[in-house]
Design a protein that fits this description.
The protein has a single domain, classed as NagB/RpiA/CoA transferase-like (Rossmann fold, 3-Layer(aba) Sandwich). By secondary structure, it is an alpha/beta fold. The protein is 27% helix and 23% strand.
């Protein structure tokens, strides 16, 4: 029975294995000129990221101070980032784990993962399954720290779309998670991190 059901699902979704081509559009018409003012991509990204209530940071000491001040003292760090970020945080008195235990998701107050990139125009952090060590560690803690390299910042949204790559799952995080009711009252941190940090290394 189980095999029959999965065979039908496989047959019904086989066409999805081939990516559809992107629609044709004039990229010049899709850019927001005011949001792209400036030449330094990190500065443009930081300005727009702050505009959506994100927190750009450029040092581990700044991150440690923020986590300690806000009482976010226990979290997860991608093992590949432990030497440069996790170890200094541990030395500052925080508890940092490099294995994310799904059964204890409520224990993690912060999650530190690698970002695939960022979009300067919209202040967006990009995470995907190929670079992010544990997607739940990026989405379930109150504080998510996306670690970026300067070379991974795309200038525009269309540049980022053109560089999607082969990851089966790509998430764009434009500031903390948020929702609004019919009266237009914005609430942040409803279905994901309430604090989104971009840490430049």
């Amino acid at each position: 029975m189980k095999e029959t059901i999965f065979a039908k699902i496989e047959a019904a979704t086989s066409a999805l294995k081939t990516k559809a081509p992107l629609p044709e559009y004039d990229v010049a018409l899709t850019h927001s000129a005011p949001r792209l003012e400036g030449t330094d991509l990190w500065e443009i990204f930081s300005r727009n990221f702050k505009g959506v209530n994100g927190k750009p940071m450029s040092s581990v000491s700044e991150l440690a101070e923020f986590l300690k001040t806000t009482g976010q003292l226990h979290g997860y760090c991608d093992p590949a980032l432990f030497d440069t970020i996790g170890a200094p945080l541990a030395a500052a008195g925080l508890t940092v784990e490099t294995v994310y235990d799904r059964s204890r998701y409520d224990d993690y107050q912060f999650g530190i993962t690698r970002a695939t990139g960022a979009i300067a125009e919209s202040g967006t952090v990009i995470i995907d399954d190929l670079r992010t060590s544990h997607r739940l560690a990026a989405l379930s803690p109150w504080v998510h720290v996306a670690v970026l390299e300067r070379s991974e910042i795309h200038r525009t949204i269309s540049d980022a779309i053109a560089n999607f790559g082969d990851s089966p799952n790509i998430i764009w995080c434009t500031g903390p998670s948020k929702t609004a009711d019919v009266e237009g009252i914005l609430i942040e941190g409803v279905h994901g991190p309430g604090e989104q940090i971009a840490l430049m290394i």
